[in-house]
Every structure is written in structure tokens, then in C-alpha cells.
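Checklist before submission:
- one chain only
- standard amino acids only
- sequence pasted in full

Submission:
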Amino acid sequence: MNTFNQLNEKIGKYRWSICALIFFATTINYLDRNVLGLLKTTLETEMLWTEKDYSHIVMAFQLSYALGLLGIGRIIDKVGTKMGYFLSLLGWSIAAMVHGFAHNKFTFGAARALLGVTEAGNFPSANKAVAEWFPKKERAFATGIYNSGANIGAILAPLCVPWIAGHWGWEWAFILTGAIGLIWLAFWWKLYKSPADKLKDGKLKQAEYDFIHSDKDEEVIEEVAEKKKDISWFKLLSYRQTWSFFFGKFLTDPIWWFYMFWLPSFLEGENARKLALGDVDGVISWPWALAVVYTISTFGSIFGGWLPKYFVNKGKTVYTSRMLSMFLYALLPLTVLAAQYLGDINTWLAVIVIGLACAAHQAWSANIFTTVSDMFPKKAVASVTGIGGMAGAAGGLLIAWAAGILLDHYKALGTVEIGYGIMFVICALAYLTAWFVMKILVPKFRPITDL
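Returned file contents:
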């Protein structure tokens, strides 16, 4: 039996049940979010959308997501993790189903905006739950596990959405995937409570409760923080740690958005280009290609949470382990620079390098989320996560705008692959840029002790 299993057998493992709940919520989140990208070609044909029309609809989601994140973190910090997550998932499930009743770009834009506002609650809620239920040394691993739900949702989407749309129409693809979230709500409401409440109910062992609260330095900070008044955004924005998270998300989140909303059409276009050239050996079924990309990403998410834990066990500090891991993950997206060259040889080669880049993003994401709970008291975690998430969504807004203009321009010239090539350069360099910015802002580990 390995050390991880021995620890769980000794102290208990109820906290991993909470991690599983968050994992399924994140899976549903990305399942609902990915439906539009998978139906892009169908909707463009039926509704005569241009690349700019599509980018505007994507931007409606991004803008509302960014604005939602500005406020949702503070709301969750006030009402608590249980109620905050419940209301968020209820809202986005309804919003996802509303897409099935939209029949032009304006109503689609409105549906996307509603989805963006409500989906904004997922990661602040999840990050706050992890901070409540896990000690620092396990948080990146737990975050990596729940964050892998994004990949599972993205795997399930191309496997079921085209089939539903082909048999019952695109409207039902939105309605049925949106309805899945309603099932999760019942489990969440029944099972989630704070560790203290679960201890009182006899569902949590004292040993596991003590392990969850084993960060003594954090416990002292928490005791002081709880006695103080609510924290304002202006106060949070006065810390370099907040800006480190802000710019880290601003520079890297847009890359994931780009892959999510444009990768299906890129792969479909690669197939069309190969058929036009008479080369059919590299032609793939793009829904299966997407499933492969996100399967690779799943391993990246879990490994991304495991590696810093490995470094900590080897004697390195939490901050050193976190930043060393993130630097290694920032190198891997450079492989996407070869995506189009390899795609000319065989589309599956392009799929593999894009999959590696997406895996690196998920590994990076598992750690950048955890930097918040490493440095801020628990009562501020959702608020800071919301601020950083807003920055990431704002970056996503910019990349959607740029992609729409760029791809329309080169599509008109008959060389859309050049547009994708430029976008891949941006995707490749974003993580190293973000790492250096974060390191400059917070060169050493500095927990916040005066909130």
C-alpha cells in the first residue's frame, strides 16, 4: 500500500468525497460550455453566421463571465460555499437549456451572456471548498483532480453532442446537456457541509478533521481574519499577490478559451484541406480527435497537482514547489508551434501536440488556483479567485475578438491556416510570459496576515 493510501486509511478520506462532488460539477460546467463550439459549423450554416458573428457570441459569454466573476466571489464568501455553489449551478443549467430556444445571433448572444454570469460561480466555489476541506500540501492535488472535470466534460461533449444534434436536432443538444446539472444539485445539497459540521454529525473522523486543519500558521491567520470586518476589493487589490494571480490568469486563461471555441473548426478545416489536396491518410474524425486532446489534458491536470506535492515531500517549500512545477508546465506549450507543420504530415500529430499544450494548461491551472489559498485567508479565497477569473475572462474576450478578425481576414484570402498559425504562436508563449510576471510580482512566498 502506498503512502497516499496509508494516510487515507489512517485518518479517513471523507474529504475526497467532497473533491468528487466538485469534480462532477466542473465536468457539467465544461460539458455545457462546450456545446456551442461543437455546433459552430451547424449553426453558422443554418443562421448564416460569419466568423465575426460567432466571435461576438463568444464575447457575450466572456464579457458576462468576467462581470459575473467581479461579484460572485464576494457573494460566495458571504453566503457560504454550499449555497453559493447550489445557486450558481442551478442558474447555469437553466441558462444552458435556454440555448435550445434561441434562433438568431442576438438571442444566442443573450443565452451565452446568461450562461457566463451563472457559470462564473464554479471556480470560486470550488476553490473555496478545497481551501475548507484540504491542507495546503494536498490542495494542488485536489484542485488537479476536480479541474480534470473540465477535460472529462470536454471529452463527453464531442462524443454525445454531435450524435444528439444529428438525431434530434441541435436544440436538444443544449436542452439535454443543461438538464444534467439538475441531478447534481440534489447530491450537493444532501452531502455538503463544512468539516466542523460533518464532525458534529459524526460523518468525519477527528483525525481527518485535525489533518485538514494541520497548517498551524494558516490557523493563526484564520483566527485573526475571522475577527475582522469583511474585506473590500480595494483592499485586496492593494496586494502584489492579488495582481500576481490577476496577470497569471489574464495571460493564460484565454488560451484555453481559444482551444475550446476554435479547435473543433480548426480540426474540421484541416480535414477539408487534406481532402482538397487529395491526401486522405491524415483525415480524422474530429469529434474523436477532440476527445483525444481532452483525454491527454486529463492526465496533465492530475499530474499537475501531484508534482508539487512530490517536491514538498522531497523537502522543498510549498512556494518553491509550486513555482518550479509551473515553470516546467510553461515550457510544454511551446510544442504547439509545430502543430501546423506536423498537421501537414498527419493531422493526428497536430492533435497530439495540441493535446500536450492543453495538458500543460490544466497542470498550470491546478497550481495557479492553489496560489490563492496558499497566500490568502479562507474568507478571501473566493473573492480573489473571482478577481483573477474576471481577468482571465477579460483576456478571453480579447482573444475571441482577435481570432474573429484574424480568421475572417485570412479566410477571405483563402489562407485561414496562416491565421491559426499566428494564434498558435500566442498560445505557445503565453505561459512563460505569465510565469515571469508572477515571479517578478511575488519573488518569495508571502502569506497575507493583515486581512
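Reviewer check: The chain has a mean pLDDT of 85.
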